[in-house]
Amino acid sequence: MRLSSLHFYLLAIVILLQLPAFQSSYPDYNEALSKSILFFEGQRSGFLPQDQRFTWRANSGLGDGSMSYNTDLRGGYYDAGDNVKFGFPMAFTTTMLAWSVIEFGDMMPPNEQRNALVAIRWATDYLLKTVSQMPNRIFVQVGDPNVDHSCWERPEDMDTPRTVYAVDAPNPASDVAGETAAALAASSMAFQSSDPGYAGTLLRTATSVFQFADDYRGAYSDNSNIKEGVCPFYCDFDGYQDELLWGAAWLRRASQDDSYLNYLQNNGKTLGADDNINEFGWDNKHAGLNVLVSKEFLDGNTYTLESYKSSADSFMCTLIPESSSSHIEYTPGGLIYKPGGSNLQHSTTISFLLLVYANYLAKASQAVNCGNVIVGPSYLRQQAKKQVDYILGENPMGLSYMVGYSNKYPQRIHHRGSSLPSITDHPQFIACKEGSIYFNSTNPNPNVLVGALVGGPGEDDVYEDDRADFKKSEPTTYINAPFVGVLAYFAANSDPG
Question: Which pLDDT tens digit goes with each residue over 361-420?
Fold first, then answer.
C-alpha cells in the first residue's frame, strides 16, 4: 500500500512539474494584442512623440509635401518595410483598425483601447491632410517607390525623392477616395465617445471625400501622371466599384443617413456587389462590404439589403471545408493560403470577418445554410481561432509569425528600420547603397519590430527566415490591422463557443 501511494505521489509530482510548460504553450492573446498594436509605432512617419516606445526610431519625412505643393503631409505610416506612404493601403489599414475598435474595443483592456485609438489617430490626422484641398484634390502617395526600393536606408536618413502624387478633379480616384471616406467614417465611430468633436470632423470630411469619389468615377492608377508611382505596388487591380459601396456602407453606419442606404440599394447591382465575394483586402472589399451591410439586414432595419446578406453567407460557406461550396485553399498545417505573397493578410482579414459575422449572426439567433451543412456562430469562431493559433505558433514550424512574441519568431524580417542600426547606435548617415551590407547580412535584425506580422509561410507551411524573400518576411500595416480586433476577441473569449 505504501509503495502504491508513493508511486501515486511521484506521478502527481511529475504531472505538476509538466503542467506549467503545457499551459504556457497556449497562446497568450493579451500579450499578442498588446504587441500587435505596438507594431504601428515602428511604422510611424513624421515627428515622433515623447512617449514613442520604439526608441530605435526617430523623426523622418519632415519635409513631406512642403516642396512640390507647399502643404503639410507629415505623419502617417510607412506601409511595410520601405519608406513610402501609400495612401490606398494606409486608408484600408485605418478602416480595419477602426472596425477593430468598433466591434471589439469594449473587450480590450482600457490601456490597449487607448493605444489602439492612438494608432488610429496617427493615421486619421494624416488622412485629413491628404484631403485638405477637397473638393478638387486628394493626395494619394508620398515617396518615389522605384527609387526608394533601390535603396536600403533608415527612414531617418532618407535622401530619396519625396515625390507627392496627387489626383485633381476631374481625374478619378474612386478607389483611394472611397477607402479614405470609409476610414474617416469608421474612425468617427471609434472616437465618438472619447472625442466627439474629432469624430464630427472625421464624419463631415468623409462625406465630402465620398462625394469626390462618386462624382469622378474611375481607378486612380489609370491616371497617366501618377501610374508609374503607384503601379505595380498598389494599383487598383480589382476595380474601383467596391470602394464606392464600401465608403457608402461606412457612411451609412456612421451617420445613419438614409441617402447612403439608398445608394447601397440602388447601386449594388451596377457596382458589382455580388462579384468577387471570396476575397477581402486592401484592393478588394467585397467580402467585408457584404458582412458590414449584413448587420443592418440582420438587425431587422431593412429587408432591401438581403442580397448583401446572401453574398456574406456564400463567402462564409467557401471557408468551410465540410461545405460543398468550399474553395478556399489551406496549407497542410491549416493556414488559409492564396498565391501572391504576404499571405497572412488573407488569414487575418478573413479571421476578422469570421468573428464579426459570428457576432452579427449570434445577436440575430441565426446560422448560415451551406447546403449540406448548417454553420453557426460557434463554428465560425472556431475557424478563426485555428488561423490565429497557427499564426502565433501552433504550426508545423513551431514558429510564431508575430515578431517578438514567443521564443521562436522571424529574426531577419524585410524591414529597413529594423535591419539597420539605429541612429543611437550608429549616428553617422547611412546612404542609399551603404545599407546593402546590412540587407545581405545573415545576422538577426538589431532592432526588434515587436508585434509585426510577417508575410508568412508558403503553401507547404515552410518559412526560411530570409530577409531577401520579401513575400514571406516583410510585415505590412494591413496584415496587422485586422488582427488587432481578432486578438481582442480571443483575449476576452479564449473559448470560442
Answer: 999 999 999 988 999 999 999 999 999 999 999 999 999 999 999 999 999 999 999 999
Q: Is residue 17 part of a domain?
A: no
H or E, element range at 142: strand 137-142
To the nearest 5 percent, what fractions of the chain are helix, strand and coil? Answer: 50, 5, 45
pLDDT > 90: percent of the chain: 85
Instruction: Please count the other Cβ atoms lying within 10 Å of the Cβ belonging to residue 446.
Output: 15
Averaged over 33-50, what is the pLDDT? 98
Q: How many domains does the chain have?
A: 1
Instruction: Find the range with the poorest average confidence among 152-161, 253-262, 310-319, 322-331.
Output: 322-331
For residue 168, the surrounding DSSP H or E stretch is strand 164-168
Could you give the residue ranges of the DSSP H alpha helices within 414-469?
A: 416-419, 436-439
Q: Among 43, 9, 26, which residue's Cα sits nearest to residue 453?
A: 43
Q: In whole angstroms, what is the distance from residue 71 CA to residue 88 CA?
A: 20
Q: Does 6 map to a domain? A: no
Check if the beta carbon of residue 85 is closer than 8 Å to that of residue 10: no
How many CB atoms within 10 Å of residue 353?
Answer: 24
Candidates 64, 287, 244; CA nearest to 164 is: 64
Mean pLDDT of 109-130: 98
Please write the tens of the pLDDT for every residue from 330-359.
999 999 999 888 999 999 999 999 999 999
Q: Burial of 381 by CB count in 10 Å (0-12 exposed, 13-18 middle, 19+ buried)?
A: buried
CA distance 456 to 362: 31
Active site residues: 414, 465, 474
pLDDT at 6 > cutoff 60: no
Q: Would you call 372 helix, strand, or coil by DSSP?
A: coil
Residue 488: CB atoms within 10 A of its CB come to 28
Beta strand pairing call for 164-168 and 329-330? unpaired
Residues 421/374, Cβ–Cβ less than 8 Å: no
pLDDT the model gives residue 324: 81
C-alpha grid cell, residue 269: 447591382
In a domain, 4, yes or no: no
Bridge partners, 453 (sequence order) = 402
Residue 41 lies in a domain: yes
Check if the beta carbon of residue 464 is closer than 8 Å to that of residue 412: no
* Cα–Cα nearest to 91, from 124, 113, 61: 124
180: its cell numbers? 479614405
User: According to the model, what pLDDT value does residue 67 have?
Assistant: 86
Query: Residue 450 belongs to a domain with what CATH number?
Result: 1.50.10.10
Location of C-alpha cell 480590450: 108
Domain with 249, as residue range(s), is 28-492
CA distances from 491 to 232, 359, 362, 496 (A): 38, 16, 19, 10
Instruction: Residue 110: count other Cβ atoms within 10 Å of its Cβ.
Output: 8
